[in-house]
Amino acid sequence: MLAAPRASRAERIEINKMPNPAAPPSSRIEDLCVNTIKFLAVDAVEKAKSGHPGTPMGAADVAFVLWSEYLHFDSRDPQWAGRDRFVLSPGHACMLQYSLLHLFGFDLPIEQLKQFRQWESRTPGHPERGETAGIEVTTGPLGQGVGNAIGMAVATRMLSARLDTPEHAIFSHRVFAIVSDGDLMEGVASEASSFAGNLGLNNLTFLYDDNRITIEGSTDLAWREDVAKRFEAYGWHVQSIDGHDRPAIRRALDAALKIKDRPQFIVCRTHIANGAPNKHDSAKAHGEPLGADEVAATKKALGWPAEPTFHVPDEARDFYQSCAAAKTKDRAAWDIKYSAWRAANPEKAKLWDSLNACSAPADLESQLLAAVPEKTDATRNLSNVILQKAAELMPSLAGGSADLEPSTKTKINNSPAILRGEFAGRNFHFGIREHGMGAVMNGIACHGGFIPYGATFLQFSDYMRGSIRLAALMHLREIFIFTHDSIFLGEDGPTHQPIEHVSALRLIPNLVTWRPADGAETALAWAAALRRNNGPSALVLTRQKVAILQRSAPLTPAAFARGGYVAIEASGGKPRIVILASGSEVGVGMEARTRLESRGIPTRVVSVPSLETFELQPRDYYDSVVAPGAKAIAIEAGIPDLWHRHVGRDGAIIGIRRFGASAPAEMLAEKFGFNADNVVACAAKLLN
Predict the structure, then answer these.
(1) 107, 133 in Cβ contact below 8 A?
(2) pTM score, whole prediction
(3) 81 exposed, middle or buried (CB, 10 Å; 0-12, 13-18, 19+)?
(4) Could you say which residues of the chain have pLDDT below 50?
(5) Catalytic residue IDs
(6) CATH number of the domain that 107 lies in?
(7) Cβ–Cβ under 8 Å, residues 95 and 40
(8) Percent of the chain with pLDDT over 90
(9) Most exposed of 99, 409, 523, 619 (fewest Cβ within 10 Å)?
(10) Are strands 603-607 and 565-568 parallel, antiparallel or unpaired?
(11) Which pLDDT score, from 0 to 100, does residue 10 have?
(12) Quick check: 94 and 125 in contact, CB under 8 A?
């Protein structure tokens, strides 16, 4: 049995880190351990006949040093609150991470590595949060992991600002990420990295796997920028090293972790498929197996046995087990300090419990409803009033806007902004970076402790769609706020007027989209979003004023939660016309109903704040609302396609199939037919 390797270095240990004085492993043992990582990846990709072996081979040295000596975790408890976070942003290299998780004793047995990319395995083709123990974020769409790691670092600093004391630095863990050429080419990485540099996130370290190869060939085909200078311009501390020189990797990490005012960026010059005689530095090693002949040649070149596959030498196994045991001791030391912190700081401990649970009060809905002002106003303005009450009730709520807060109305009053070196506040200035905002939000949500929200105009949801989709895929508890929700923002014209965007959001699985019609619906939309713990929510809000709906009965949380409900009943209870609408168009339906009823036509108005939620309701409830046999009219200022199933072949939809126009909102309503006159005419046509 080998002596336990050092878990960390004394000069960069924070108060919650316990150094392990054991000496570093010998070069021979290091080589053996690194080659074990490489060949687990090679064999898994070869068996699956699919995957990316080159990057795991090229980044194995960097990953080995980081995980064995610098990264703090407890493989027995992957959710330990005091752990460092690790993000593998190039998710295609996931066999690197799966190999590490297996070797360090996480719940990922060798049989799972042998099932790489197979049905229901815990080793899917890209890392997926929730599927595999030790995976912090779902990565694969390049650049997203960059933003996620930054969000995690922000959340860590926010917790530390709220909870740590001079005597007890409990929440001072770090975030490390391996990032790739492809990650840094994507615009989302630029947005997020600029944001991180501006905040001076000194607990964040990127290891850039600079192998200079993409699927099509050399990065020179499309990319010749000086990445080091770029990150220096962002405000990061930058170093450049040979990514296969393990002593140099240690020196660079030691130097980086001494930096107290900036995030750290280490350019690690590596070689894809390092050690493969014929595919070293080849694009062929990026997205396909090495092939049987090259696998055999590589194993021979590196002195590795041809059989068995998935071979873990005893010495390497012993090393990784002893290293994991040392990290367990580190965890035990943290637990002692954590207990002392709780005893010495009961109010902070109570706050931590609340933040950790992101708990909502039992009467959240009634308190938010009570906060709604009794006045005609835009739902974005009503939302701001509700936000203040929500923030008062839930200290975990924090967020901001992509430089549009004066328009989106998303500032938490009486709370400072999160600025460079200042993380005790709750208001973010994300800058004009929608995609980066979404990726950072996802990282904050993945870290835990906060429910993040981010706001922009609905038109610009396209800029952050990739981040929204990943939030839904990861089942993250967060809130996207989109204002200026239709053509009725008016004079800005078609470039800013969303048409297809509400439908596009509804099409994302596991995203719940709410388009409230008035203040009461806005309050309950906020409550639903805050309570939802298995996925994100989108709140779609108006710029223009909407009237207070005069319902047949007071709106209840239970009715609202169904996504669609009878807002006002037809006279006699049996409608001939049923008007379904969302958002500001519910008011148009109400006005049309008044006119139709005056003509003796019983008309029901159904508010549908969440179309996709309404569609999931039991058939008996759905039919009780839509009233089969009546003629149905749907009204929504957007693409009509998702409404066809609700009106049937004999119904009608008042929607938009073209881009908008620059004009006052009242003129647009008349020209596009979103008024009571058009609805009444449409109903008459259906009945005749």
Answers:
(1) yes
(2) 0.95
(3) middle
(4) 1-23
(5) 434
(6) 3.40.50.970
(7) yes
(8) 96
(9) 619
(10) antiparallel
(11) 30
(12) yes
